[in-house]
Amino acid sequence: MPAKFSQPYQPLLLRILHGLIGLFTIAAIITAYWTYDVYDGRWGSIPLPKFMEIEGIHGTFGLWTLLIFPLFAIYAFHRGQGRLIQTDSFKKLANFGKPIWWYNLHRLINTLSILAVTFAVFSGKMMNEKWLPQGELNHSWYYAHLISWLVLVICIAFHVLMSIKVGGIPLILSMLNLRFRSKDNPSLWRNNFDVWRDNFDMVMVKQWLSSLDFLKIIEIFVLINILLSWIISLVKEIG
After folding, report:
1. pLDDT in tens, 10-54
2. What is the pLDDT at residue 239?
3. Confidence at residue 200, expressed as pLDDT on a 0 to 100 scale
4. Statement: residue 2 has pLDDT above 50
5. Which end of the chain is more exposed for a tag (fewer CB within 10 A), N or C?
6. What residue ranges are annotated as transmembrane (predicted)?
7. How many CB atoms lie within 10 A of CB 199?
């Protein structure tokens, strides 16, 4: 592969995970509104087809999001942590209007977007699929899921706008580029994972926990909520 790129280079795994999580999340957002339009519509609606099976389709996209999200979150908090909030980000946000302000605002929006997806998948798993078909619209977790939809839409909109502001169209296009460098060759992923697995032990975990910072606390919160979402999903299947 050529060494030089006209666009900023994005790691191949990031592009794949980011693309999948973006695709499934946007599909879940669209079908979520359609579900709301069919079964609720108390706060306004548009004349969408009364497709009663849309709730199940929304749940499928939500499940696919939950399947990809753990991998994306782990990558983002480790290999991609430079794109997330830093220990000095709030201090740098005092430099209003300067380039460093925009870069740190971008990191903050990226972090909030991950939290928004976490809120959406968890609140969705706390719902019962029978509520809406039975006309039960006043459950607190249904309201929470509606709020998560709104928060997620806002976060994604700002994520796109901030990406354009910070990196322009070249940054957006770099996420769609199919080229990759030799170090990102998928043939190396298995070996890299085996090396990581062989070196992983509780000492590494204790060292990681010994220096907790704000970003690590957010990571723990996100991963715990993902785990709880899976546990709730399995309990529902068994029940």
Report:
1. 899 999 999 999 999 999 999 999 999 999 999 988 888 989 999
2. 65
3. 74
4. no
5. C
6. 12-36, 56-77, 108-127, 147-173, 214-235
7. 8
Calpha distance 156→228 (Å, rounded):
24
CA distance 142 to 13: 34
Q: What is the pLDDT of residues 62-82, one digit of tens each?
A: 999 999 999 999 999 998 998
3 state DSSP class of 237: helix
Q: How far is CA 172 from the centre of its chain?
A: 17
Q: What is the DSSP string of 88-132?
A: THHHHTTSTTSHHHHHHHHHHHHHHHHHHHHHHHHHHHTS-TTTT
Residue 111: both structure tokens together: 């972090």
Instruction: Enumerate the domain spans of the chain.
Output: 12-178+199-238
What is the predicted pLDDT for the residue at 109? 96
Question: Phi/psi at 155 (nearest 5 deg)?
Answer: -65, -45
Distance (Å, rounded) from C-alpha 54 to C-alpha 227? Answer: 26
Q: What sign has the CA pseudo-torsion 23, 231, 80, 191?
A: negative
Tell me the one-letter amino acid at 162.
M
Pick the CATH number of 12-178+199-238 from 3.10.450, 1.20.950, 1.10.150, 2.50.20: 1.20.950
Total number of residues shown for the chain: 239
- Rounded to the nearest 10 degrees, what angle do helices 54-77 and 12-39 cross at? 150
pLDDT at 3: 42
Q: Give the whole-angstrom CA distance, residue 63 versus residue 44.
A: 27
